[in-house]
Amino acid sequence: MNVQLGNWEVLTKIFPKKRLHQEVVAWLDAYTGPLSVACSGGPDSLILLLLTRLYWPQNRCFLLYYNHKL
Q1: Which of 18, 39, 47, 60 could be bridged to 34 by S-S, CB 3.0 to 4.6 A?
Q2: What is the model's pTM?
């Protein structure tokens, strides 16, 4: 399934790849398998999820949702 992100590409200007940990970026750039992203629904989790989809769209992505109120 291909998800259209609309104008979320603006995040790449706020959080360019060079600001991310370079060892992690290098590993993700070389990795071709599926990615799992833990997300609680807060702004930091959602930005992590969106940046993952923007920078590594070739990888399948699984969302692991966590509700802190449970």
Answers
A1: 60
A2: 0.79
